[in-house]
Every structure is written in structure tokens, then in C-alpha cells.
Amino acid sequence: MADRQPRAPEAGATPRDLTGVPGLDEILGGGLPRGSLVIVTGSPGSGKTILASQLAFASAQVGRRALITTTLSEPPGKVVEHLGGFDFYDSVLVGSGVQFLSLQRALDETLDGIVDELIAVARQGDAKLVVVDGFSGIRGVISEPQEARQFLYRLAGTLGTLGMTVVITNEANPRDPATFPEATTADIIIGLSYSVVAGRHRRGIEVIKVRGAAQLPGVHGLTLSSSGVLIYPRLESRVTAGLERSTVSPRHILPGLEDPLEDFPSFIPTGVPVDRATFGLQELDALLDGGLTRGTSTVLAGSLGTGKTLLALHFALASVRSGEPAVFVGFRETARQLAQKADVFALGTELRAALAPKGGLALLRWDPVDLQPDIVADRLLRELDTTGAQRLVVDSIIELERAVIETSDLGRVDGFMAALVKAMRLRGVSALYVRETRRAVTQGQDFTADELSVLAENVLLQQQVSYRGQLHRVLSVLKMRFSAHDRALREFTIAPPAGIRVLTPFESGVDVLAGIVRQQEGALSGMLHAAESRDPAVEDES
Q1: Is 486 exposed, middle or buried (0-12, 13-18, 19+ CB in 10 A)?
Q2: pLDDT, tens digit, for every residue of 310-328?
Q3: Which three-class secondary structure string do you get for 451-466?
Q4: Does residue 6 have a cis bond before it (omega within 30 degrees)?
Q5: What CATH number should be reported for the domain whose range is 16-233?
Q6: CATH assignment of 246-505?
């Protein structure tokens, strides 16, 4: 996770303590206010105890002692035993920096007696963070709902005046109205979710309430691992809340831009030449009027066998060749498979050198199984910010879109893609998104506009076209904003050792290109005629 520091509090504001939980400070809007009451609520197995314990050990690591109390959920010995498998657990801190206390015997007393014991132990141990794990155990001895509120009010009020932060874990639905009366006393309410979607376990975290800060809205990704709780802020929330604006490094400022936080390229001063991100392929770069406009997003669409991944490798290696780092996000080929593909076209040595440490090309790869889109986005943004990479390849964006649908719903795809494009613009990254089209061989132009293609400034299309009994690979520029470009259809070949080579019009033959154009225009005309014949409005007019 990225180490982003919360903004410094204004004069007179309550000091905030970093949580030590990756991603939590971001979604809280900047750490935990000192002396606050934090309620962590969620279903069984959602990670409440792990999160609270992680907060306690992180507090002790920086010299702020913590007290963890258990009720009827688990005895302290069991809690310590379970925590021993996590990286944040430090046995040296147990008993000194982190103290454990069971409230089981105290539950036979009055609520005031429980509060008194907690306060006494916390003061005696000079605790700065007090965890009450399993508030449902206390609620079990409460006869009136109002008593729960009074209990929390007195406990948090007394400890808060001593500068102690209180964390309560509660087994309940975060949105259950039955918990609202007692939740009104909380300064922060964190809801954990744990559900099964299409046979897959899905965990999430939501900051429902934060006093004195603007939390990052939405349900964010959460995972449990040997590291403990890891939180991945929702990409759309990061962008819309302005978090990306505050974390983009000055090194990402595009040459000639007066304000790096405005959308490219509206602030390019008149007369300043637009720099280009080239493919290192002479004819293709000429077709693009010198290359892709730097800082824009490009969709590279094409059917199977048209060389999309190979062209993407050309784009990435051209970046490394010019001394600029690049990031390649892959969901299919492994590093070994990419190298084997490059070997065929005499690019293998260059690719291996680029993928070596400090070689300039970072490969981020996930198997396209059970993907978490916010985890992918977080890892990608960290890599871009760490390396200062100015080019990105995603092969293929279809896998990321599928992950968004599987983990959320179809309606989120558009927002996620818009946020991804925005995050790249803020960094001045020239992004190339590979996308598959449906048909392997066509006679007409095979492309269906999608949200990403609408958002992207440039769209390139690679096809295998059948013409007069032969297959021809053709490339066209469907869209290129902010730049002049050649609108002609161009044929290209894939052959060793050069790899992809875009042919000049004379090399492919004017009659071939003209014939393919006539064929595609005829196919398009037939599609429009068929669509009109199915249009009820057309039928009514006739």
C-alpha cells in the first residue's frame, strides 16, 4: 500500500494518530482523532478483532501503549494464540506495550462496575488506545437499549478526557437500525462486510461516520492475509474526492503544462510543440503524425491473431529505449511467455534487459481468476508513483472490466474506467489499453464502441480482413483527438525479425486497399439498411 500521510491538522484541531493499517488512514480522511470513540461493526468472520488488534500493536510500536479487553467472545489466551500468526504481532510488546484483560468476571457486576474496572486498568497501564473486543457480550447483560448508550458515553467520555482512544468491536450489521441509538455516541463508525458473491468470498470496509473529517465514501476492498488487514480504497472515490490530486508527484508534470492538475491538454500554451509517445515503428508513427499525443489514453482494439500484444510490447520498449520507465500490466502471458514471444521477433534480448531490475520496464501480472479491481488499481498507481513511469500498457482491459462486474455489478464498469482514465491523466501517463473484438476474420469494420473507447482520446483498430480469398492484416486510426492523423487504411505484416511492420500504400497495392475499403463500406451500408428495416419508426413512415 502507498504510504500517504494525512494532512496536518489545523491549529487547535484534535491531533490525529496514524493507524498503521495500510489504506485505513486514507479512507478515514487522516487517521484516528486522539481521544475519540471508534465503533467497528460487522458480521462474524469479517475481521473486526484482527483490525482492532492491528490498531493496538501499531499504537504500541510507536510508544503509545494499548489495552485489549475481551468479553464473552474469546479469552485473552485464545486471542493471543490467534494473533501470533500475523506479521504485526510482536511477542515482545505483549504485557508491556500491549496488555490483555478479560472482562468475563466483571460481567457479573453492574455496568458502572465494568466501566470503573476498564478505566482503572487503562489508567494504571497508561494506555493510549483501549480496545473492547466483543461489545455484544456486554449488550447481553443490558436490559434497556439506553443503557448501552450510557455505557459507551461514560467510558469514552472519561477515557477521552485522558487522551485515550477507545475502539469497540460489535457483531452486527453496520446498517442495522437497532444499533443506531448507541452509535450516536461514536466519533467514528467503521462497517466491515463479509459476503459470498457468485461462490466467491468478498470482504469490504465502509467508513459510515467520521466527525471532523471527510471520509472517502463507498465500500472499499479489504483482504485478510498474514500481514493482517489490508485496505484498498475504491478507485472512483479516490479520484472524485481529490485524493489523487494531492498525491501526484511534481515529477509527473507534463512539459509545457502550467497546471498538472488540470485535464490534459487544455493548458498547453500556444506555440509549445506537443511531445509524442512513439511506437518506434516508422510508418505507424507517421500515420499518427509523429506518435500518440503524450498523456492521453489509447484503446488498441483488434481480433485474435492481429498482434495486439506484440504492438503493445513495441510501445513499451520504445519508452524504455528513450530512457523513460514504463509499466506493463498483464493478465494472460507470464514474463516467460512474453519473452518467448519477443524472441521470435528479435525483441527477446531487449525485453529481458528491460524487465531486469532497474531495466525500466515493470511487469505487473495477475492471473485472470478472482481478480479484485481495486487491488489491481492500487498496485498500479503505487508502481507509477514509485517509478515515475510515463507509459502504461494494460493487456487486456477486458479482464479488468470482467473483474469489476464479478465483484460489483455491470453498472460500475463505466465509473471505474472513467476513474482509471482520470488517474492516468493526472499523472501525464500515456496509457495503451488492449481490447479484443469479437470476430477473428471480418469483411466489414469490426468494432463496437464501449465506455472506455468513448473516454479515451485515441482508438486504433487492428483487423484480419478477408479479401479475394486472402487474409490481410489492416490497421486504422478510428479516433485521435488533439492531433492530425492519417485516416487511410493501412496494411501491416507480422514477421521475424522486425515484428510488426506497417506497409506503405505502394507496398500493399492501391487496388488491395481500395478494394478492402469498398468492401467495408458495402458491409457498413448493409448493416445500416438492416437496422433501418428493423426500426419501427421507419416502418411507420413507409
Answers
A1: middle
A2: 999 999 999 999 999 999 9
A3: HHHHHCCEEEEEEEEE
A4: no
A5: 3.40.50.300
A6: 3.40.50.300
